[in-house]
């Protein structure tokens, strides 16, 4: 089988795609509840958090293998649809309908309806409301749509007209807290709204993997930088999902054996009016939450002795001099 081609990142991605969490991320537990037809490509592929892949010579029993959701060619009236349960309910600020590698088989148009329901499957009398009216899509392209709603959303119904394929669905929003202020939570977890602001290098793996649930599945499911051949160290900046006081930090180097960082430190700050662009230069002067600590290969590290900084909103993770870590947890209570 030929080598996979990876879909390029969007060059004109709007701010909401950087400032919000993808509530439909499959790592958060998002799932397909129902689908009218996914003969050529299973609808759950559309929820993969990774970029779409294309294998030029890969086929299965039903035809060309596509990395996304693809229905068969309709020969009757109507349209295809699927219902998605978001991994975490939230307030949606934007959508992405990605048709990467779908050229002669993309969905020409799509609309999206939404509801809030505490059950996995919305009942038949559920009142759906439109958050995206029927909008034209094009072949092999990224499509972004801003959404103006403050209503909490747990489920989406994606309608495609009349049939075809979508490579990826991303639903950008702010998760709704599912805990009390007295409960200790992971303040940087994706499901709690944590997000990466910036980083100096991510040659082998993106820092957003650090915030994903469960353990890393392999060495690619983490943040790993290239080998540093100059002075200095690598870093990334993360916004907490909710401001809070941290009382325990966990750092996992799972699967990183010959390439884990020698040391790690964490700086932190309480930023009342954050500007993502200015935080990078500011972060160099933040106070230390966790002084430099030694790390070991393929291990879980627990740090309970932290500097008392009170309520924080952002952290800067420094690794010395380079290397890879799998997961980061900041346990504490939201302010």
UniProtKB/TrEMBL annotation:
Q: InterPro entries per the record?
A: Allantoicase, Allantoicase_dom, Galactose-bd-like_sf
Entry GO MF terms: allantoicase activity
Catalytic activity line of the entry: allantoate + H2O = (S)-ureidoglycolate + urea
Q: Which gene encodes it?
A: alc
- Please give the organism: Agarivorans albus MKT 106
Q: What is this protein called?
A: Probable allantoicase
Fetch the SUPFAM superfamilies from UniProt.
Galactose-binding domain-like
Q: What class of enzyme is it?
A: hydrolase
Q: In which pathway does it act?
A: Nitrogen metabolism; (S)-allantoin degradation; (S)-ureidoglycolate from allantoate (aminidohydrolase route): step 1/1
Sequence ranges assigned to domain Allantoicase in this UniProt record: 29-175, 193-334
A Pfam short name: Allantoicase
> Where, if anywhere, are coiled coils annotated?
none
Q: Which family does it belong to?
A: Belongs to the allantoicase family.
Any idea which UniProt keywords this protein has? Hydrolase, Purine metabolism
> In the Enzyme Commission scheme, what number(s) does this protein have?
3.5.3.4
Q: Which GO terms describe its biological process?
A: allantoin catabolic process; purine nucleobase metabolic process
Q: Identify the NCBIfam families for this entry.
A: allantoicase
